[in-house]
Request: fold
Amino acid sequence: MPGAVRANESVAALLTEYAELLALTGGDPFRARVYEKAARSVAGHATDVTRLSSAELRKIPGVGASIAEKIEEFVHTGAIRAVDELRAKVPAGVLAMTAIPGLGPKTAMLLYEKLGIDSVDALESALDAGALAGMKGIGPKTAANLRHGIALSRAQTGRFTVDVATRTALDIVEALRALPECERCTYAGSLRRKRDSIGDIDILAAAQDPRPLMRRLVELPIVTEVIVAGDKKTSVRTVSGLQVDLRVVPLASWGAALIYFTGSKEHNVRLREMAVRRGLKLSEYGLFTVDTDELIVSETEEAVYERLGLAWIPPTLREDRGEIEAAAQGTLPILLTEQDIQGDLHTHTNLTDGVSTLDEMVAAARARGLAYLAITDHAKNLPMQRMTDAKMLRQREQIRSMDAGDMVLLHGTELNIDPEGDVDWDAEFLAGFDVCVASVHSHFTQSSDDMTRRFIRACENPYVHIIGHPTTRQIGRRPAVEADWDAVFEAAGRTGTAMEINAYPDRLDLPDELILRAKRHGVKFALDTDSHSTVHFGHLPFGVGQAQRAWLTADDVITAWPLPRLREFLQAKANR
DNA sequence: GCCGTTTTCGGCCCGACTGTTTTCAGTCG
Reply:
């Protein structure tokens, strides 16, 4: 059955590829869109498509008779003939060319058909040889842009972590707000939706005369390149390679514009479809009647949602993952907030690889108003940390004798899950800790089956309360390990083991999609900062963002519980 | 190819910017 990659994701990838191939080969553009929509909906579908009947498949939004048939074909044969046939018509390199900024399906296909250009490398050679001169629709400017686009796509190091993006966005917002012409300014886009990584920054501002704001943006010292410059929209690139889009609208359009620029694209498409069904038209300038073009609402997000029959939807939910239906029915969840967080169960001191002392960490946690704090330095099997039994016991005594005021101090450790799923100490020693986090710190490349068994064995250990940063991914540097996550989460739910939501911006682990899947298995979550310094407690909002994106409430998160309830949860595990 | 609180057929989200096409196509978000 489903391994690391669910059949749903394989099907979604094939449907997406089919949509891209359809766009390349021309024909009905609406067909391509239907396949894209079906791909998203299959990827987000809770039930494995291999277990669904034809009738059940057709109940997935966007899946009709034809796509259901293709999914069934995939389930039975592992492939879809229609996809294979289109693949045979268009070299993979032509599809890859559309990843170059500014080069879409039409141009890619034109270059392939007229000049036989079938890869990014071939395009570069053709540009060098001047072979594009005289091509219809491609002048000297376009050729130069393509050359630039190739360089950009090669230099692309991926997406940016949320801490870097947040800092950049706040600096720009502050600079624009300082202008007297600026009536309002904020960031929107994926940063407002609190995605786990950020591709570019969207800034929205309101002003009667946008020109001073546009000028200010392009003149900022961090700006190295102006990509587009208009009266309503300006795009620039910063020294770090981050693209920043600034849109300026009249203040009266603020609400509609903020919805539009917050996205996601899929969420906005759904809203516009709802508007159309009501004889209305939604754009960034407001909600209008179609026939008379009369403005109905635009000033606030709430007013626009309300006129569409919806409750206001928190930005972290705007991914077309069921939030629109919930808003229509009044069943949106009361999301976890930063204020709900009572404690932190994963922190380090300079006894291992932290940089702050125990005293400093305790003082910082108290200053943040935490009700409880667990110190969880690394266990002995991570040799570079030089941990010993004696050091650990000495730290425990130190913690037991400390006065932390109203805050309760817990003594814990971050255990290492070895390749077989065992941890650093025996039951007797483990029993002395108040709380144990257990994490994978080595052997990241085990097979999915081995890794799955490893995690399940760790969950079945009565002294392991929390699985730390489960996928071990490091955003932009190291991929997630492979495992059958549904099997792991089933074990976590069954044994009362919490899964961590690690708030460290390079990790954000579990990621939101996996949190959603884990919740279906009845799993509870430990939202921790994994602080290695007093300043890292400030990473909490990034973790809260992931929890919100996964629809979590305070009841789902054990670090949002008061200490007595948390202690019951920890105790229940040992008593199983 | 999908879909229906107008519809089982005729629609399908909307607008900005660029470059080159003298009126708009392509790309992007």
